[in-house]
Specification:
Blueprint lengths: L1 E2 L22 H13 L4 H6 L1 E4 L1 H10 L5 H4 L3 E10 L5 E12 L5 E12 L7 E7 L8 E2 L10 H4 L1 H12 L3 E5 L4 E4 L2 E5 L5 E5 L1 H7 L2 H8 L3 E7 L4 E7 L4 E4 L3 E4 L4 E2 L4
Parallel strand pairs: 1-10, 2-3, 2-11
Antiparallel strand pairs: 3-4, 4-5, 5-6, 6-7, 8-11, 9-10, 12-13, 13-16, 14-15
Helix pairs in contact: 3-7
Length: 268
Amino acid sequence: MNFNERSSAIHLLQEDAPMIFDRLPECGREAVRYVRDSFPKLRSAFHRRIRCMSLSFMRDYRLAVPRLTGSLLRERVAESGTWILPIDKAANYTVFYDLSLDEDGPGKWTGRVELIYFLSVPTAPMPYLSLVVSNRPGGRPVMTEPTRRPVRLRPEDLAQDIVSLILFTRYCETEAMMMAPAGKHLFGQEMYQNDTAATIEVLDSAWLSSLVRSGSFRDAAENGGFFRLQRSLPVQERRLTWVQPYKLHAIPGGRIERGDSSTVNDIS
């Protein structure tokens, strides 16, 4: 993957973003205006930590996220930064976020939400504004491109995808590579080149890949398997663990007994 002005929206965080304004297509100019005018004080927060999930990690995560337990999703999220999330080999989202959320009942969140999605596709010369989510008093309403019609969902609900991603990567065993500007490296099975002025952290997870691609994962997921947080020794650090579903065993006398669950790929 190449990080550049066409494949990501990172360049919009630069202080000299207006300097490239004249050579941008209209979709790019709109993005510069929006970030400059609506989020002038948040640009440094978005720039604080820029992360990218590898394509393989993203594919495995999409299969794993439906099996997250409520205990993980009740964690508080208070952070800012940028995610680059691949859709396939040719398209991805760049997401600027500033969140401070607490759970307010099962599946509900309350707090501050600022999200800006940019979509990069091969047919567009620059990333274009895809989705804006904000619950700031007096701020612009939630809207989508290209219709610009307000979305009939709470901003806190629209933030759920990024919240799940933040919490999953917080506790999942991952490998990380820091991509300096002008750097080019092979990481996992993918080649990366950074043609931006920012340092980008690329994440992969051999643990999740091994688990999700095992023959038993899909069957276990369909029959009640799930992820949970478990403390590992000796430092008592909480990590993500996969729990196999319970199995029913027939015993003499015609009774059915429920067997114990077990963890797979425990990283403790």
